[in-house]
Amino acid sequence: STIALALGVDRTRRELIPFLTDTIYDEDEVLLALAEQLGTFTPLVGGPEFVHCLLPPLESLATVEETVVRDKAVDSLRAIAAQHSTADLENHFVPLLKRLAGGDWFTSRTSACGLFSVCYPRVSNAVKAELRQFFRNLCGDDTPMVRRAAAAKLGEFAAEVETEYLKSDLIPLFTALAGDEQDSVRLLAVEACASMAALLPSDDTEQLVMPTLREAASDKSWRVRYMVADKFSELQKAVGPEITKTDLVPAFTNLLKDCEAEVRAASAHKVKDFCQNLAPDAREQIIMTDRKSVV
Predict the structure, then answer these.
(1) Residue among 185, 205, 184, 207 nearest 195 (CA)
(2) CB neighbour list of residue 291: distance below 8 Å, 6 or more residues apart
(3) Nearest to 275 by CA among 224, 246, 233
């Protein structure tokens, strides 16, 4: 930033940014600092009108091997996405997202997962359809690390997608990820469960989300069951009192009796919140009945 101030906005765009894009550093600490600095560089290149010139170096940083560097580059890309005009978003940012999502290395595809939600609401319907297809491809990627990244960002992306496409496009992706062969992917899909349920009417939640949640609560991997227990308060608020009464109460009781101590401990931490969030008219009866069952 000191050099950019000395050069002025024009020379920063013409000389400094291309230099940073073309120069390959092998020190992760330097790359991390670059990724962080570039996210605050908009005023130094002339403001939002020229913010797209920051995309090339950040795109390179979003493909490096070191995870913390990639994550910081994605954070900076997300920050400057909001500073793009609608036209620049479609002309510059979306092509970057497509290149990352279609990259040969899993590192770029992993980074792409975190960028869909920040540009989807502001692009045309045709581009939205393309973005949903790219995200679908990432959810079915051959590399588990990419599917993990997609699962981690599924709930965030779902919050920006129209309800009709949430049901037709994203719910099937959620179901597939929740049934993935890798438990590290399945447990991240659980995080999206509460987001999905909160976005859907009660009837749709019961039909589209609850079957997957029931399976997760009894998953063969204790890590997945642990995640369900850890997210139980959020799930309870998202699905509402009726589904809580019919589905979540039995599931929570089973988690409190789980064979793995870690799962029982995570569930025990949620007992107070779970009981407080129960419908007042049924709270006492549920607590007393299921207390006896657990004991």
Answers:
(1) 205
(2) none
(3) 233
Taking a C-beta distance cutoff of 8 angstroms, is the pair 177, 189 a contact?
yes
**Is the pTM above the cut of 0.70?**
yes
Q: Rounded to an integer, what distance in angstroms lies between the CA atom of residue 4 and that of residue 15?
A: 10
Let me know the angle formed at the C-alpha of 103 by 99 and 109, rounded to the nearest 5 degrees: 95
* CA 244 and chain centroid, separation: 25
- Render each residue's pLDDT in the chain as its tens digit; 295 residues: 888 899 888 998 888 888 888 876 778 888 899 899 888 888 888 888 899 999 999 999 999 889 999 999 999 999 999 888 889 888 999 999 999 999 889 999 999 999 999 999 999 999 999 999 999 999 999 999 999 999 999 989 998 989 888 888 889 999 999 899 998 898 888 888 888 888 888 788 888 888 888 888 888 999 999 999 988 888 888 877 778 788 888 888 889 888 999 999 998 998 888 888 787 777 777 777 765 554 4
For 57, the token pair is: 């170096």
Alpha carbon distances (Å) from 94 to 80, 99, 247, 295: 13, 9, 41, 55
Task: Give the Cα separation of 122 and 87 in Å (integer).
Answer: 9
